[in-house]
Amino acid sequence: MLTSRTPRGLDRLVNFTDAAVAIAITLLVLPLVDLVTDGKEHELRTIFEDERGTFLAFAISFVVIASFWSGHHRVFEHLQDYSSAVLWVNFLWLASIVFIPFTTQLLADQGTDTAPVNALYIGTMVVTTASLALIEVLAIRDPSLQRAEVRGQLDARGAFVAIGLLLVALVLSVVTPVVGLYWLFLLFLSGPLTRLFGVRPHRVGASPVPEDPGRSDGRD
């Protein structure tokens, strides 16, 4: 249990997380490297034609991890401190991130029974999204974790919209496996649905509380 926390501790947590994400995103390329390190000569066109599934899986997972890191970065830009709960939920988030290269390889190697692999891949995304949403909830419940200048701007409802869409995609990927990961295009509805539910846009640097017009700051 953490009894003392410092700004350096938050920096170490963020740096450790960034390093783990960097390793995970680097691991995605290893199956592509293996394609040309078997001691044989290869034509570039033949590699792309024969291994298009591997390249597609790499591209999808690269974008997925990059998007998840971007969301994590956005949330932690609001924080000035962390708690034990945030620490351990962040480890859950990391566990799902580093698991993505494994599921990516399964995607590249999947045979005719694609439903379990697609479900595992999307299920991993559900865990990643849900754990980051939980970090937001923890920060919202403990405003002292947030930087004063952006305090009150975190809103986890957008993340819960994304979780709902991912769960729908998960079910549909099992019920209609022929569509496969294309069900993830449902995530494009996240923005419109978020606006429909009246979720405020996340802005870093704006004042969360309007300044009292009657208060003088000594400036003209």
UniProtKB/TrEMBL annotation:
| InterPro entries according to UniProt | TMEM175-like (IPR010617)
Bilayer topology reads: Multi-pass membrane protein
Instruction: Please list the reactions this protein catalyses.
Output: K(+)(in) = K(+)(out)
TM segment ranges: 12-33, 53-70, 82-100, 120-139, 160-185
Entry keyword Glycoprotein: no
- Keywords for this protein: Ion channel, Ion transport, Membrane, Potassium, Potassium channel, Potassium transport, Transmembrane, Transmembrane helix, Transport
Main localisation = membrane
Keyword field contains ATP-binding:
no
Annotated family: Belongs to the TMEM175 family.
Official protein name in the record: DUF1211 domain-containing protein
Q: Which organism is it from?
A: Oerskovia merdavium
Q: What is the lineage of its organism?
A: Bacteria, Bacillati, Actinomycetota, Actinomycetes, Micrococcales
